[in-house]
Amino acid sequence: MSMTALDRASLDSFAPPASLRRHFAILGGTVDIHATLEETGNSYSIIEVGIPPRFPGVPPHYHEHITESFYILDGIIEVFGNDEWSPSRRGDFFLIPPRTVHGYRNNTDQPARFLIMGPGHDRYYFELVDWMYREPIWPPTDREALIAFGRRHDTIYV
User: Fold this and answer.
1) What does pTM read for this prediction?
2) What are the chain's domains?
């Protein structure tokens, strides 16, 4: 049996230390930024989102340039696509190409968690969490501010 040069010690060198993990609790939910665009060599970001029961989620939107992915970890999350809301469960994966209108919400009485992967989403969530701490209402009352926020992050709300 042969061993490769890539062992556990070398794998550990790729992972950021636990002290750099970013965890935020806001509006009954959580946001964990597991990997930033910078940490992945400008490839993608990995964000874990915990959404509380009956949370309206993100309004339908699309990205002009980026591909985004969702992976459901726990609970039931309704995902918007093809002009309808569909329930998704643990293990469901969504690959969302540019210019595809999509959204998500938790329309159940139980919390849910999922991963969002896409380039630059760490920057989106850092700014979003800061905004939600300042104005703890979702969706925001100022739709024009939401539209401007989205445009800064390749997110076009429809």
Assistant:
1) 0.82
2) 20-157 (2.60.120.10)
